[in-house]
Amino acid sequence: MSEPIVSARDVTKLFGSKTALDGVSADVFPGDIIGVLGKNGAGKTTLLETLLGFSPPNRGSVAVFGEDALAMSAQTKARIGFLPQLDELFGMLNGKQHLAIVSAFHADWDRALVERLIAEWSVPLKQRIDSLSVGERQKLAVLSALGHRPDLLVLDEPVASLDPIARRQFLRQLFAIAENEDRAVLFSSHIVSDLERAANKVWIVKDGRLHWQGYLDTLKESVVRLHIRARSVLPRDLAVPNALATRVDGNTAIATVAQWQPSEADALAKRFDGSLDVESLGLEDIFLELHR
Amino acid sequence: MNAVLRVWWTFFTALPLQRWLGGTGAALCTLLAAGGFVSGTYELWIFGLLVLFILAVFPTLFASPAVFRALSAPRASQLLPRFRARMLGAVALLVATLLAIFVLFFVTSAAAANRALPLEPIGYAFAFATAMFLWMFVQFGDWRWVWLWLAAPAALGVLGLLAPESRALVAAVPAWAWPGAALLAWIGFAAWYVRARRIGPIRFNPQPRARAWASAELGGALPRDVALRMLVTARPPGREGWALALVGIVLGVNVAAMSVAAPFFSFTSSFWPFGTMLLLWGHATSIVHRSRLLWLRMPGPRDAVRREVERALLRNVRGAVLLIVAAAVIYASPLVGASPQQVLAGFLLSACAALFSTYLAFASIPGRALHLVGFGLMIALQFPLLAPPFTSPTNVTIVTVAELGGAIAFRMLALRRWRQIDWLRLRPLPQSNMFRGS
Amino acid sequence: MFVLNPTSGTPIYRQLVEQIRRLIAGGQLAAGTELPSVRELAERHTVNPMTISKAYALLEGEGLLERQRGKPMRVAARRRNQAPLAQRLERLEPAAAELVLAARQLEIGKKELLALVGDEWEKKDV
């Protein structure tokens, strides 16, 4: 296994009395496209920002490309692209000036790529940034983040304000970036369908902890909904192993379980003296079940 | 383009108005310089440089701290490699450029008058540019720093620096001490800038905390004017008492300071109109910005809304005029013993400056470019004409007329803009604490 | 050619694998047919190319697809003796279990079930 690009160890971040992050440990490896999912206020933005060294954690450490995130060298910074949730563009300038400034700071700015994307995404360049619509601003912010072909791309809700066409275009560009297996992308989004298309790994943030982290495919295969039909009435407090939530209604029960192994199906059906249907869940349903 | 050069170029060209004025200034300067070269006289050179100064240098001197802050504030900027160092490099280049133009101006003037090149003015110019830049940078973060400007005379008075003996001491300070102090200020600034975790964005709308709104008693039907005032000043009704008390204290302190400072500044020096303009800058801008909320929430034609806003702005001017009256009283008193003509002239000068600043803010509804440039141009007029060696009753009249004329012109522009502006195309206001939980 | 549903509970790679298997078994993908390249398929369905590669790699491991140098994957020639019967039977076990379960729920007896399967088999040869 190659060296992780980002490595967080036991990161804790407090804002006054509120615990935003609680002992988070995670790694980002080259080739990963990681989708970060979580309720509003769960700590997604804080996590992404702490990983990039924008706010020092109260405990724990973060290493980016082997360096401490709080003291990254200029070379390391040149390999990172960041898109914050509330885009912070240079509002008083127009798009052309903005990109001119950002590109001047990066030695290897891919001008051809940016110009192609400007045409493809119809990004207006002559108007003052403050007077652009939210979607146009977001597109411009995305361009600023990926124009220098970073090895680590961190995006906080990058497409929240884009229409479905623009989102598809963005995803395609994301895949083009990720084709290079030395790169990694970390992005948070509420648009679960985009995550399902793009991510190969998922981090689920809940109450400041990484509730689940791993491959998306594994997540889908391991969190399932069981439909139990028994011959006799089932007890109210039915104990299903690894159940996240159970609902009993006379003879039938619906239980959402994690860490499901298909081989357990037979044993369970026998135990409840009935039949068992296994329903696999989409990511949105999984997310809802994990937060019940 | 190299990052330092690119940022330096942006200082001069960030706002469209800057580009227009700067371009015109550069073109005119080139023409005049060419004319001077052809005719062999220095006057055209000097004039050309003066035009460049007024049209390109002064607006930039005022716009560049805003641009500097705007570029430094976003967090993504922290990820640009060697960002802070390069920004400082661009500022150094900016100051060098401004000084170079100034030096050129002085070289040609000296050559024209067949004098030796005086070095002191260059030192003073460096100190002045430094003070302006750093001061405006601080103010763009939170305009309430302007109160510090007015407290400066108080500090000076307290430190006894304004007594005649101390003035002699100050005059005896060697000319190189001023640029030396400026250099130290730059070093201190650079040290802070490189290390600061977060640079705040340009903020023109300071407001009471959300807690103040949470504890305000806003039940039942509010009288219309109370509601209007609340929306325009972003202050819950109960808090007005505090604000008035604060203003009273500051007023008192400043009056006391003025009584000590008065002998040092003539009532018609540029300190008074400049101070007045600066004092009204932030407040007037906040009111104008928040007037957008009024439009959305008030029934009636645009003119009715406009009249309410103008009323709020003039209430503001009234406060400033009170301050000027207090100053006039001090100047007329035996403490300073200025002549009645001087007192009247000074009062008119500052009062018209107050009107100018207010209507300039009013006209700058869509954008700050006009505001920054207009401000810069007026300063360009006030400082040279009212500086001690050059001041004269004629100059004072010129500046007063310019201020009044400017106020009338900007009022007409403001009225026209109000009628035509497309509110939906304006950028959204930063979220007011009024709409947030505590 | 393929229908991929990213929001389904079944992982995308699994959907693709099963569809290709079915098409090969049903004869719609004849031996030697070239499949779309990873990039092409990823672009058409706007999914992560890694998912497509994973599916292709899995099928290649099973011997259903073969890689050609510099060209896209193609369906492998059917080989008579690819995997031992026991192994192939094992592959079919889950489907058989599902079928038996459904039959029990519908209270269909073993004899009727075997007759049904026989009928289906007859249909296949057409």
Task: Describe the protein's architecture and organization.
The complex is a heterotrimer of chains A (292), B (438) and C (126). Chain A is an alpha/beta fold and 292 residues long. Helices cover 32% and strands 30% of the residues of chain A. Chain A has helices at residues 44-51, 74-78, 95-105, 111-121, 134-146, 164-178, 192-198, 216-222, 264-271, 283-290; strands spanning 6-15, 18-28, 33-38, 59-64, 67-68, 80-83, 152-156, 184-188, 201-206, 209-215, 224-230, 243-249, 252-257, 274-280. In chain A, the strands form 3 sheets. In chain A, strands 6-7-8-3-9-10 form a 6-stranded mixed sheet, sandwiched between helices. A 4-stranded antiparallel sheet of chain A has the order 2-1-4-5, covered by helices on one side. A 4-stranded antiparallel sheet of chain A has the order 12-13-11-14, with helices on both faces. In chain A, a hairpin with a 2-residue loop joins strand 9 (201-206) and strand 10. In chain A, helix 4 (111-121) packs antiparallel against helix 5. Chain A starts with 5 loop residues before the first strand and ends with a helix. Chain B is mostly helical and 438 residues long. Chain B has 2 domains: 1-213, no CATH class; 262-423, no CATH class. Chain B is built from 17 helices and no strands. Chain B has helices at 3-13, 16-39, 43-72, 75-78, 83-112, 120-141, 146-158, 164-172, 177-195, 210-215, 224-233, 240-261, 271-297, 302-332, 340-363, 368-386, 393-420. In chain B, helix 3 (43-72) packs parallel to helix 6 (120-141) and helix 5 packs antiparallel against helix 6 (120-141). In chain B, 37% of the residues are buried. With 126 residues, chain C is mostly helical. Chain C folds into 2 domains: 12-75, Arc Repressor Mutant, subunit A; 85-124, no CATH class. The chains are: A alpha/beta (292), B mainly alpha (438), C mainly alpha (126). The A-B interface holds A 49, 52, 54, 74-75, 77-78, 80-84, 88-93, 97, 100-102, 104-107, 128, 130-131, 144-145 and B 1-3, 5-7, 10, 13-15, 66-67, 70-71, 73-83, 86, 367-368, 425-427.
